[in-house]
Specification:
Elements (H helix, E strand, L loop, with lengths): L2 H12 L6 H13 L3 H8 L6 H12 L2 H18 L3 H28 L6 H16 L1 H9 L42 H9 L9 H9 L10 H13 L6 H99 L2
Helix pairs in contact: 2-3, 4-6, 4-7, 5-6, 5-7, 5-8, 6-7, 6-12, 7-8, 9-11
Length: 344
Amino acid sequence: MDDEALADIANRLYAGTLEDFIAARAAAAKEASGRDKGLAAAVRGLPKPSVAAWALNMLARHRPEVPARLDELGARMRAAQDSLDAAALRELGRERRTMLADAVDTVRSVARAQGRSISDAMASDVEETLRAMTADAGAANAVASGRLLKVLSANGVNDVDLDGAVALPGLLPAAPPSRPADTPRSAPRLEGAKTTGVKPPARKSPAANAAASRTPTTTPQGTGPKQARPRLEAVRQTPRPASPPALERARAALAEAQEAQEAALQLAGGLQEQEGQARAEIAELQQETAELRSRLQATEERLDRSRKRLATTAAEAKQAARAADKARRATVLAQERVLRLGNR
């Protein structure tokens, strides 16, 4: 099977729209089956990414400079962790918060341009993945590949779990180690020797080692294993120092927790201020509502009085109209009588 052809097909699939992934995968597998059955089977086995992972793949395809900047920031943060520079870690933490917010906005924009919106929950997953890539070079490599399958997370202490996180992990470029190897800075044997007051053996030259190998070894009486035992027991009893990388990770986790606490306090303060403003606004609206209700009640009372006056006036007008009609008829009768009397 041609690995390069498989990687090329995977790149095309994960660069497409999420809705068309299944159909595009089936079409690619059908096309590959005519020339390589193994390649077709491998294509059919490519998993469909989650929505958040797809959005990050779109970011890697259309705005690769964004994950590249986060990767560079992560390298600086890991260097600060190695040197135990707490001040630099705090400053880089603030820079990371700003960059993460901008990157999430960019992911939303890129996803909208591809015809899909990102919910707040998905945006949180996206931010957590971008945060993980600043903590682990392997995670940064997975995001930059554009073949991410699921979101990532980092706790600041352990390496990011990349199992099943990216398609074709064996065909990705090798990522540089995210942290130094977990080796102690000083050998426990030398620490034990220092504790017991025994000087460590001097380093011999290769010639001296060769001569020693040719010279029969003799053990003076009273020396040998019994003499070396106190030193060995001192080594055993000397507490093994904590692995520096683990300590660095713990300190980095502490710095990140302090940053999160500071951000949470700032957020809480802002929300409390908004709460106070909302309460003041509610009080004003309640007062305005009470005034409007009072005015409405007065207006309704005036309306009721006006309706009553209208009914009284209408009744009086009707009665006056009847009286006017009666007077008109009486006037007509009087005129007819005058005419009759005048004609006699």
